[in-house]
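S.,

Sequence below, as promised.
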Amino acid sequence: MAPFTYRRAAVLLVLALAACAPGGSTRESQGSIERVFTPQQYTVEDFYKNVRFAGASWSTDRQRILVSSNLSGIWNAYAVPVGGGAPQPLTQSTGNSIFARSYFPADDRIIYSSDEGGNELTHIYVRNPDGTTKDLTPGSKLKASFHGWAADDKSFFVSTNERDARYFDLYEIATDGYARTLFYKNTEGYEIGPVSRDKRYVALMRPRTTSDADIFVHDRTTNTTKNITEHTGTVNNAPADFTPDGSKLLFVSDSGGEFAALRSYDLATGAKTTVYEQPWDVLGADYSKGGKYLTVYVNEDSRYVARVLDAASFAAVPLRDMPNGLVRGVSISPDDASFAFYASDGSVPDELYVRSFSAPPTRLTNALHSAIRRDDLVVPTVVRFKSYDGVEVTGLLYRPHQASSDAKAPAIVKVHGGPGGQAQVGYNALTQALVNRGYVVFDINNRGSSGYGKTFYAMDDRKHGEADLGDVVASKGMLVETGYVDSTKIGILGGSYGGYMVLAALTLQPDAFKVGVDLFGISNWMRTLNSIPPWWASFKEALYAEMGDPKTDSARLHRISPLFNADKIKVPLLVLQGANDPRVLKVESDEIVAAAKKNGVPVEYIVFEDEGHGFVKKENEIEGYTAVIAFLDKYLKAEAAVAAAP
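The prediction came back faster than expected:
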């Protein structure tokens, strides 16, 4: 289960989308052309020979890009040479994952974050060029985050909840010597946003519900805090960035419409202006350090689209010769001369590129393993269908190359996390492994998902496990209508809130799916909502407003909790869980597994002792997802085949 966000997951840049066209034979079917061939099949381990890269921070000489990668089997920090060459390891952790955050502006020190076994109690570290490290946020129970550099590069910002486990204070730390100063004491439980370049203002946000939030601006000169988005009704607001001169705050708001637009607030006069809008949610925007560019991010039909604008005129900057697919993770160099970015069409892992604004890009990484043929992988297609009550629902459909009307395939409905998450175009190793093995995968954006307007986003409020589950079940009809899905072989898979939806399907609509795969899903809402981590305090009430307050809504929460309906489970169930998960406690999975076993149905359970909410170590992902495919091969493919035999 993910914490509240303003329909604004990680900022991504998308400039184009193009499908890979695999070779093979074609045949006419139902008035359309089917392209059918049998791809080479790979193991899950083969897919994890691919490498994942994330993040991009420029070195002071602009010759290296700092990234995080699981190249070693666990996430570590690497320097990727801009001129080409293999990534250079900067950390060599074999136990806890390390995520690179930034180079220091004037030397080769780096900032990174790490927790203990996935417990999410992240600390902020400095790694020196000689390999020695320093924990800037020591303590056994605190959680810390990096918040970026001051404009003069003489200090940087870090938040921690060391003073009060519920709230994050903002500290300023000197680049030289690491002297620390309390920059903003957060006694009101705000979420901390950007800091103005002159360090006078801090933008803050307070959610009331997951669809309703206000922005506050704290003036450090006058020590006053002002609500700049007072409103009536339901309006979602979130800060984006201060203008380089510190005169305005850019923010996103869905006031007056279904979708959020980018707006400007004048700090001196209070005047508000809409500066950029689309028929989709604008997720945010940020200025380059040099101030020449503004990158605006849009959630466009399950694709995150970014447009680089001239900061003065808001005119689009022409970018020619970009690679096919989604381009994300943009990092503009501090001198505004070049930028790094990632690209993928959704069938292959993200590759890191670098380019100037006037020259074609250069690819710096080789994320796709040489043993895997690109043509064997599948590019997703955005599809739409009418749900049980006529509401239009979208999702990403992955069709195996070998599936046809003459060779109908088993299918998996995959449900994303949340509540309020979104199925997005992007590479996912488990999805590609399933499709390669011949499973159709439908990654659904059921009602309550982000990206399709605030009315759609709120349609599942206090109707979880009911209104949204109805969409998931209704998607079976769409799958069958494709003509290449076997109606007797449809299962369900999901993680976190999606794992809850798997369990809800098996208990509240037990005849809907043939198998279920639950990845760390909630089984008892009463316990989960009463045991959320203390650092979620700033959006606890918003979560309660959407899901229900366990003190006042216990009857409904009990009704939709799979644990209390576990006697209805009658199909095979596989559960994967991280022992250190602070969001969905291990007891949630322990109890549903024990309850399901009492029904005499096949139940398999895998616990990873060194993982938290989601799995980050390659060896665990390989073990867990190999088990998923073996489970589906046994209980979805094989069982359906046996049932159909004379």
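The chain has a mean pLDDT of 91.

Coffee later?
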